[in-house]
Every structure is written in C-alpha cells, then in structure tokens.
Design a protein that fits this description.
The protein has nine helices and five strands; from the N terminus they run ααββααβαββαααα. The protein is an alpha+beta fold.
C-alpha cells in the first residue's frame, strides 16, 4: 500500500470512529498505531493533561515508549513536556545531543534504544491538552511533510477528545479528558492481570482486551473492569 493510500485509509478510519458513543481510549490507541506505521516510527504515544495540568500517558504502542513517557513526566523534562508547555512541535534529531538539557531523559531513552523523538502538541486554538509523541531507533530529522501529517493526526486526536460538546463547554472537555485518564488506569491494571495469569506480554494482553471489547461491542474500560473483578473473585 502506498503512503498516500495509507494516509487516506487512516484518516477515513479515524474519522469514522467519531460518532456518538465512541470509545475514546480505543480511538487514541488506533491513532498511535497508525502514526507509528504511517510515519515509520519505532513507537508512538499520547500524553493528556488532567484538570490540574499534570500530564499522564493514555496511549502507547509499546511498554518501552510508555516508560519513557512516564519518566519525562516524573522528571518534568523532555520533548513531550516541552510540546505541551509551548504548544509547538519539539523535534530531537539525535537524543544523545540533548544530555546537558535533559540528562535523565537522554539516559533512559538511550537505555531503551531510542535515538530520536518528535513531540506534536494536541492543540485547538489556544488550548493545548497534551502531545502526540513519535519515537525512533535511528537518528534523523522530522521532515516538513511528516510534520504536517503528524500534526493532522494530532488534530484528529484533539477533536476526538474534545468533541462537539467540549468545543462549546469547558466542563465537557474536562469530563472527557478525565474519563480517558481514569479508563486508562483500569485498562493498565487489567493488562497486568492478563499478562500474569496467561503468561503473555502486556501488548498481547491489550490486544485480547480490544478483541473482546469489539466482539462484544463494549467499551475497553468495561471489559477491563470485568477482568479485574473476575481476578478478584478467583
């Protein structure tokens, strides 16, 4: 499939999910998966801000990218934090060159094998609600074309999170963000339960949760909560 067709398919698929009652967590997971594939990134992830401004990882394509995202939040340093605070794209062509600026981030990213990272703000007008983050295993810049594509995908994520009600009422935006953050916590717990009981990776556990949710036409958070409850009764 050519890149142009892949992009069209991506935008159509994501736009098709923006209907009443869509699952925001599944939408964000689809988006990071498509981002990594379309932009040839090793991994991708999304950070969202809570009502008090603190950031949390809500979607990622791998455990290692989630760890790097969490570290940036703990240390309050790195491209993700920079993109959220400034509302502008932050690109790092070679992570090793940023040691003096972000020592903890550089050390952790290098340990996970990442050499580049590009963070795109999730922004609507003057409101920035998080960042879309691309991780690379080889050094290199983010081309102008890739930056445009990444920003377009980030815009879809922003629209999906805020939706029409949130565009008109700030309380709705906060509720939607809080739901996504709270749901992610439950899903992470369920991933851990499945990974331990089935002796599989967290990524495989998440795919099982998604498959059950789609087959039964339920939300990921509801399926995850059921898995946790069943484990508690065992």
């Amino acid at each position: 499939m050519t890149r142009e067709r892949e992009l069209v398919r991506t935008f159509v698929e994501l736009a098709d999910t923006l209907v009443a009652g869509y699952d925001i967590v599944d939408l964000l997971y689809r988006l990071v998966t498509r981002c990594a594939r379309t932009l040839n990134a090793a991994d991708a992830g999304i950070l969202l801000a809570r009502a008090d401004g603190t950031l949390e990882v809500v979607a990622s394509t791998s455990e290692r990218s989630m760890l790097i995202g969490l570290l940036q939040l703990d240390e309050s340093q790195g491209p993700c934090v920079g993109a959220y605070r400034t509302g502008h794209i932050v690109t790092v062509d070679n992570i090793a060159d940023m040691r003096s600026r972000w020592p903890a981030f550089v050390e952790a990213a290098g340990a996970q094998g990442y050499q580049t990272m590009h963070a795109i703000p999730l922004r609507l007008r003057e409101q920035t609600i998080g960042s879309l983050n691309l991780f690379g295993d080889t050094p290199g810049p983010l081309s102008a074309e890739d930056a445009l594509v990444a920003q377009g995908l980030a815009d879809i994520a922003t629209i999906g999170i805020l939706h029409e009600r949130a565009l008109r009422e700030s309380n709705s935006a906060r509720e939607q963000l809080q739901f996504a953050l709270d749901s992610r916590v439950i899903i992470e717990q369920a991933k851990g339960v499945l990974a331990q009981t089935e002796r599989i990776t967290p990524e495989q556990a998440f795919e099982i949760l998604r498959r059950i949710a789609r087959t039964s036409r339920r939300k990921l958070s509801d399926v995850a909560r059921e898995v946790i409850e069943e484990a508690g009764r065992a």
